Amino acid sequence: MNLLLVIGVAFRALGKNKMRAGLTVLGVVIGIAAVTTMVSIGQSAGELVQGQIQGFGTNVMVIFPGSTQSGGVREAPVTTLTSHDCEAMVKECSAILAATPLVGAAGQMIYGNSNWKAKDMFGVGEEYLTVRNWELTSGAFFGQREVASAAKVCVIGQTVVAKLFQTTNPLGESIRIKNVPFRVIGVLEKKGADMFGNDQDDIVLIPFSTVKKRLQGSTFDNVNAIMASARTFPQMGEAEIQVRQLLLQRHRIHEGEPPDFRIQSTTEIANIMGIVTGTMTLMLSAIAGISLLVGGVGIMNIMLVSVTERTREIGIRMAVGARSKDILRQFLVEAILLSAIGGVVGVGLGFLSAAGLTALINSFTSGAKWPLVISVPAAIVALVFAGAVGMFFGYYPARRASKLDPIEALRYE
Question: Which sequence spans correspond to the domains of the chain?
């Protein structure tokens, strides 16, 4: 029997009971829609995390001072990192592209009649923008000369510009921090909020030497942390090993002794977040897949009812020459069509649900916006799986129909 003819007959058979066919595929529709939605939302979360990590910097690792222990109790971090450690990383570690010290600062900023306290105020080195993969919209960043001379200059974010200067061009203007005048020499490119809603543009960057000398009044060379960037992503592991070996040597830490520093890389964070989002997506998809199996059971039940109702029709077909495999194929095609129709509708509904959920999440979050990800591979897999469900759950009713005795089927009332 021609396959197109079989499909046509299947459509006519399903069309005789539209309501029943619609209710039958409802379970498949819900299952496929749920799986498609969960996969899309999971991939959206993954892209959001990757985007935030890329926004933090290029192949970045952060080196923190270690903590001391007394009587098994972990105490405050010790000041073991210096700006010279940072310089040594760039010079001696071949996998390191750039590095910058970090020194925390805080203080009220005053310009004219306006004042503002930035959320982030850091003392940094001249390679900070390279490490953070950040650009300037105007002006220039401070260089080695400004760092060496502890120059009273600063670079500010877009939020600080809006709060202090409004419509005034900030370049060349002076702001006061703890009664120390700082000349604005550059404005950072807008980054927006991170995934936790923190404003990344509410920031002031000052040469770390200036923070130590002018704001802290300190003559020590210690820094709060060091940010370093590997040359390429594949070199992240090599860069971490090189930095670790260098610091162990510079700090005279012998084998078996605990290091007085710790290293955390964005790759490590990305891997952890990837595992979390992947696991959650898999779990939610598995739960959603249960409804797809329930839909398959519904298809089996309805097909068994259909075989019972069409027993006489089966007997007539066999009487005029239809073979068992023709009957088997006819009912199997009907089951697959039911499941495939549910799959197509479910994929469309899943994409609409993913778009709606993404918009809903973005309306309730003040941080970085979730991207809308339409997973075509997931849709294709869902459709194939829907067809497989129809074939699996439709085989038994189809086989039962093909095994009917023609004489008994013709006598059936």
Answer: 3-54+271-411, 79-259
